[in-house]
Queue: 2 jobs
Job 1
Amino acid sequence: NAGVTQTPKFRILKIGQSMTLQCTQDMNHNYMYWYRQDPGMGLKLIYYSVGAGITDKGEVPNGYNVSRSTTEDFPLRLELAAPSQTSVYFCASTHSVGKVVETQYFGPGTRLLVL
Amino acid sequence: AQKITQTQPGMFVQEKEAVTLDCTYDTSDPSYGLFWYKQPSSGEMIFLIYQGSYDQQNATEGRYSLNFQKARKSANLVISASQLGDSAMYFCAMREPSQAGTALIFGKGTTLSVSS
């Protein structure tokens, strides 16, 4: 198993540009998440999905969009990049059935710099 | 109010010594989970240990143990016999049923430096 994979590893964007951060997991997890980590801080939830076709906002969703057309993929879209979106982005996944929720596994992260 | 508080921005320890990283949490849910993750300088998030709120015994995973004091709402990570490779940022996180999508809430982290 590759686990959770993310591409690209690093990207520089100009203000106003758009891009999609890719995330794929091969563990058949139903729950997937996008977090951002600002320098010296913990992770904050951007969006999450509890299954294909179902997504919802987290703590810091402004400026982002997501989709979940398959179990495996959960891309994060930045439409109009702003300097405030300079951060490290982590995708994570877990399996949840009823009240049982397993450990979250994280991808390697995407470092984004907006200039 | 912060849900997860890590009061130690940085900790320094010598090889082979034990170290405790502090974590306090705030929740009114009776059912919750507490996690510790390690983030080395390479940036990935590595799961270390998990403690459920109903678990009777403190969790242990190799050199890692979680000192769970429910009444004090603390979940400190204890690393025994520190190694140079333990130098990293450590995050405490909580999952509670009321949290959106059962996502994790993270503290700000503690940087651990292990010297020889």
Job 2
Amino acid sequence: NAGVTQTPKFQVLKTGQSMTLQCAQDMNHNSMYWYRQDPGMGLRLIYYSASEGTTDKGEVPNGYNVSRLNKREFSLRLESAAPSQTSVYFCASRPMGLADTYEQYFGPGTRLTVT
Amino acid sequence: GENVGLHLPTLSVQEGDNSIINCAYSNSASDYFIWYKQESGKGPQFIIDIRSNMDKRQGQRVTVLLNKTVKHLSLQIAATQPGDSAVYFCAEHASYGKLTFGQGTILTVHP
């Protein structure tokens, strides 16, 4: 199993450009998450999808949209990139139905720079 | 412990020493806590977790302690090795499968 994969690994955008960050998991997990990580800070939740067909806002959703394409894939779109969106973006997934754990499995991240 | 701001707390230890990383959490209703390790350029990796009905849980070389009275969590690493050097995050769960992360502590292990 590859686990959680993210593409691209690195991206540089100009202000105003758009792009989509891709995430896929092969663990048959129900829930998927998008976080951003800024220097000196923990991970902040942007959007999440508790199950296929549903998406909800997290702590910092402004400037982003998401699509839960199917059970495997959860994409994050920046419609008009701003320098404040320079960050490292992590996707994570979690199985449902396990009462003892809320462990999330993380991808390797996408490092995005907006100039 | 965890601090608000841009400068992460740091902990430097010698190889072979025991390390203790602290975390203060905010929500008294949180029912589950987890520690992650993040190496440079990688995503967070699970270390150990604990539910709120416990006060201690042990893994291989790691122990998590939970003090709900003062809303404090700690991670103890025994016989710390250079490969343990990383940023360590605590996170709490309160609702809907969402985790809220602390800001992290940088652990540096000197050979």
